[in-house]
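Dear Dr. L.,

I hope this message finds you well. Following up on our conversation about the binding site, I have prepared a predicted three-dimensional model of the protein together with guanosine-5'-diphosphate-rhamnose. For your records, I am including the exact sequence and ligand specification that went into the calculation, followed by the structure tokens. Please feel free to forward this to your student if that is useful.
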Amino acid sequence: MKKACITGITGQTGSYLAELFLEKGYETHGLVRRSSSFNTGRIDHIYNDLHLTYGDLSDYGSICNWIGAVKPDILINCGAQSHVRVSFDIPEYTMDIGATGVIRCLEALSKFSPETHFVQCSTSELWGSSPPPQNEQTPFHPRSPYAAAKIAGFWSTVNYRESGKLFAANSISTNHESGRRGETFVTRKITRAATRIKLGLQDKLVLGNLEAKRDWNHASDVAGAIYLMATAPEADDWVVGSGEMHSVRDFLQLVFNKLDLNWQDYVEFDPKYLRPSEVPALCGDSTKLRTKLGWKPKYTFEQLVDEMIANDFKLAEKEKILK
Ligand code: GDR
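The resulting structure of the complex is given below.
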């Protein structure tokens, strides 16, 4: 039986990857951070099918023990401090997990399981201020401690590949969302608030920069792309993106319109949600991934928005009944 290991398995993308590897017949392992509160909500429905191990990307010993014991066919590194705004407040921790954490995985693999195929979940944040559309040739210009950490992880992955140590690939993914998205990221913050406003559970939504533009994909489509990279004949760097770009303002308007609400009646601005240096526009040109590996997203932007609204509407309804 083939084996897959996932760091960040309790996160949004990690949970979709876990479902996918189980579906493909892999023995699926995850590294889970110890927390005093439950942090497995996104994988509770498959909990008994998974092999979970306590560990941490900050702890090289725990990664070595895990990799050495499992010797997986595939390791996907999804774990990170992934909030861009928060990375300005905790830059050192963000760097430790987002950069050194990658090196810990690469080192552990080269020592204990050099045949493993490794995929680093990198990000469109690497492009930063480079104008869209962006592809594998676009110059990097990181604009946050998060992106600076991720760029070190990206190049470390390239270096282990080029020095012949490992099959090491990078997924340069644009934003990915779903009903499982963390509630402090802008799309989920908006769908959660709009549905709660609709049911009278909340009366305002406070946001930052509405002009930023992003290429929003469904997280399950990104998980599908990562699987293709891990099972490709050769390791490489791959851009994942729909090639469609929308502003935060467009997203806001679309969600509120779908709920027959006027967003201007509810949205307030607070500078605390601004980033000291912002990424203005991201739009991933995934021609290489589509032509070489046959990737095709299942969700359109509109379907993604509809699913997020439906999911949050159900949650708000439950909350209302409980109240
Ligand atoms: P991003 O996602 O920074 O692109 O990184 P996020 O949803 O946090 O922000 C998108 C844009 O929305 C603007 N914005 C706000 N953002 C948040 N979180 N909260 C607000 O209230 C708000 N108001 C406006 C932001 O300024 C930004 O321009 C995500 C993360 O998942 C990364 O880990 C990942 O690498 C990239 O996507 C691809």
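In brief: The mean pLDDT is 98.

With kind regards,
A. P.
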